[in-house]
Design a protein that fits this description.
The chain has 4 helices and no strands. The protein is an all-alpha fold. It folds into 2 domains: 63 residues; 31 residues, no CATH class. The protein is elongated.
Length: 99
């Protein structure tokens, strides 16, 4: 029963992490062709040119980024809970069987 609990917890954590990265379509994602053309520009100019776009993109995609953040936090919490449960089983086994 203990192995199933830990395996289920780790599996659930993996599913949450995969869900967090599955929604990759954002409202203001850059066009790949335009990004390739700008690769030869000076870094200082690129920083100046796109700093405003970055804040606009964050504002436009706030809900998707929030969902991704919550899913990743839940995934990490679930993984930590699984490690704690596994550690508890290890302690109980060590006490009952002996080292």
């Amino acid at each position: 029963m203990g192995q199933g609990t830990v395996l289920g917890t780790v599996t659930f954590s993996l599913i949450l992490a995969l869900l967090a990265f599955s929604a990759r379509r954002y409202d203001t994602a850059p066009n790949p062709d335009a990004a390739v053309r700008l690769m030869t520009a000076e870094p200082e100019w690129l920083e100046w040119r796109f700093l405003g776009n970055l804040s606009d993109s964050i504002a436009a995609n706030r809900s998707k980024l929030g969902t991704k953040s919550r899913l990743l936090s839940s995934s990490l919490s679930t993984l930590i809970a699984g490690a704690v449960v596994l550690g508890g089983y290890l302690v109980v086994h060590t006490i009952t069987v002996g080292a």
